[in-house]
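Q: I'm building a small set of examples for a reading group on sequence design. Run inverse folding on the following structure and report the sequence directly after it, with nothing in between.
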């Protein structure tokens, strides 16, 4: 006889108002990591800071908040309405057996108010709190160290230029837990020993690790590791991390520094020192000087997640290794010369090598998370690289300029890799649309040049 599924309870999620497109994939991924799933019937207004979620248990809600950087807090939802009257009616209908354990005479509590898109005076807040006197609170108020914290949350809409007199949504609930927003500050790139011109923002780095569902004891790999910023977020969540990069100096922390008023990198400016700075060195496997376009790993499923930010070719064209006999036509056939020189590496080839590598080396259910640069006037979903072994999970946009953006692509391995899958993308005619990625650098600077010319023309008026 099958066991009945646990009854879902309603929770209110308070979200940060940044990286809006990334929030739903992060919450969905973390719920699945905690053993739950996101219901299509959830009351979600995607751009709103208030989401009502159905979650099986408070433990799962707490597990979600131990990981998310997109959400601020979660509450057990006791009441919800579009007016004060609707909220009070909703609270009166909330089951007493779920409410009373937190209202006992030997407990302490306080009530707080959060408003979105409007500021209330202290007198207004007190009036709203006093209106809840019908609730059977028996404990004592303790404003400093209460056992239970209850919140009134009011939503005044998304338009700061048209704020209604009364809220459009009102909520009341018991506070459960806060998210991990403090990680954004504590792991800020500004405080990090080793950085480069393209070091990933801490918030986005943690979002990528969450999209990848990184968990303790996973092995996470970054084939374009650079200064190792993406390894740090995965190591924070208990994963063992490694990477490769073609740049010898970056891997070894040598050469010129990226910081202002600093000529050369110091002894603590390397990937290992970055992880040591946060007490994460034990999770660092190593980083290799290697070319991601060439096979260096044994065949088989090695990694639980691949998280990376491939080079877009904006500062310089992407490069890969090639022997002299590949580039110098006059070399005699019999000459054996394995001195490696760099050759061009087209963006389309970078992404297909990356997907092929992920399809072969990810464990089943493992995820590939990477950034794809986009020229927005030409964007369609057809230009997202695909592979028969990988399912597209999410596709989120971050604007770079009026005409360019980058999209965070999350894919999951759903099919075992076979030799015939290696070059399958060449067989179905889908390869041609992706060639447009190769001219991203030219299109990027074309847009910059046009913008500068327009600004100069406007200044002459």
């Amino acid at each position: 006889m099958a066991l009945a599924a646990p009854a879902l309870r309603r929770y209110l999620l308070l979200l940060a108002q940044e990286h809006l497109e990334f929030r739903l994939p992060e919450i969905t991924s973390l719920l699945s990591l905690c053993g739950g799933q996101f219901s299509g019937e959830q009351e979600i207004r995607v751009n709103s800071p208030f989401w009502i979620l159905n979650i099986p248990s408070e433990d799962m809600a707490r597990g979600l908040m131990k990981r998310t950087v997109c959400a601020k807090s979660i509450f057990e939802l006791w009441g919800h309405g579009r007016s004060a009257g609707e909220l009070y009616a909703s609270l009166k209908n909330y089951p007493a057996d779920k409410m009373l354990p937190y209202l006992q005479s030997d407990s302490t509590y306080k009530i707080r108010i959060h408003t979105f898109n409007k500021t209330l005076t202290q007198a207004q807040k007190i009036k709203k709190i006093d209106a809840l006197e019908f609730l059977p609170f028996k404990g004592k108020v303790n404003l400093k160290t209460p056992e239970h914290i209850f919140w009134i949350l009011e939503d005044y809409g998304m338009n700061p230029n048209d704020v209604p007199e009364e809220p459009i949504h009102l909520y009341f609930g018991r506070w459960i837990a806060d998210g991990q927003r403090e990680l954004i500050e504590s792991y800020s790139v500004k405080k990090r020993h080793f950085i480069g011109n393209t070091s990933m923002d801490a918030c986005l780095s943690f979002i990528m690790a969450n999209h990848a569902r990184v968990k303790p004891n996973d092995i996470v790999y970054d084939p374009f590791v650079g200064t190792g910023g993406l390894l740090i977020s995965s190591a924070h969540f208990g994963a063992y991390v490694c990477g490769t990069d073609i740049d010898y100096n970056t891997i070894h922390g040598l050469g010129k520094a990226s910081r202002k008023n600093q000529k050369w990198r110091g002894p603590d400016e390397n990937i290992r020192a970055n992880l040591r700075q946060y007490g994460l060195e034990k999770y660092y496997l190593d980083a290799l000087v290697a070319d991601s376009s060439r096979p260096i790993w044994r065949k088989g499923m090695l990694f639980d997640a691949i998280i990376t930010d491939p080079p877009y070719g904006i500062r310089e064209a992407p490069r890969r290794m090639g022997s002299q006999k590949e580039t110098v036509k006059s070399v005699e056939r019999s000459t054996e010369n394995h001195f490696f020189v760099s050759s061009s590496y087209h963006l389309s080839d970078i992404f297909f090598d990356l997907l092929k590598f992920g399809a072969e080396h990810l464990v089943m259910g493992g995820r590939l998370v990477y950034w794809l640069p986009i020229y927005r006037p030409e964007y369609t979903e057809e230009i997202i690289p695909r592979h028969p072994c990988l399912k597209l999970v999410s596709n989120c946009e971050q604007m770079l300029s009026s005409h360019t953006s980058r999209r965070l692509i999350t894919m999951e391995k759903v099919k075992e890799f076979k030799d015939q899958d290696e070059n399958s993308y060449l067989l179905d005619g889908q390869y041609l649309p992706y060639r447009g990625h190769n001219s991203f650098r030219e299109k990027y600077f074309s847009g910059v040049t046009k913008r500068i010319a327009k600004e100069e023309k406007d200044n002459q008026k």
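The two ends are 80 Å apart (CA to CA).
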